[in-house]
Amino acid sequence: EISEMLMYEDIKWLESTESHAFLSSCCQGTIDDGAFNQWLVQDRLFVEEFQKFASHVSGLAAAQDSEAGAILKGGEAAIDDELIWFSDKIAERNADGNAPMLSANEEYTVFLKDVTEQMLSGSGNWPLAISVFFGIEKVYQRAWRNVRFCKDSPAWLKEYAARWGSDSFEVYVNQLEKLADKAIESASPAERDHISTALQTMLTHEVEFWSMAYEASKAEAMKTEL
Length: 226
Hints:
This protein is mainly alpha-helical. Helix content is 84%, strand content 0%.
């Protein structure tokens, strides 16, 4: 049921997980090094903020039941490892690890902070928290799983797509989905509407995040040509 709420706007879902130009270029083997490096650096910055969000969601999960707590705690540990891996790959690709956070990224992190404030106050906080957390992880997993199975994606990209689109990550996302489905069972109609709106806002940020890397790289290439 949470997946139906997430995919309510088909076009937005497809763009965030498959049809965006950034993802299409990954699949077609035409992804520009600058675009990917831009995305990689910005995603590392985003994950640093997402880690804080995950910590709050994990705290709420532990208050629900031991299973939810264990699943989210495992997710927190994976984020720690991911940040180290990100830093290693940024250095390996000679990308600018000191680049500032771009506006689309900042806007997405503001959204996370807003959701955090909402979920830490008032009722209905757990359904909102786990729904948005699941939604973010689902988009990420589905997008890179699609790239993973694209026959024309470049060899160097396979490592990234295999990591983020892995079967083990899919298992984890499916666990989150079950937690979210259970949580929204007790949500009021008003709370469900609020969760649905939050998920669609999240998808908008996801699309803008892909665009941030793809379009900034194109702008830089035009400057070079001039």
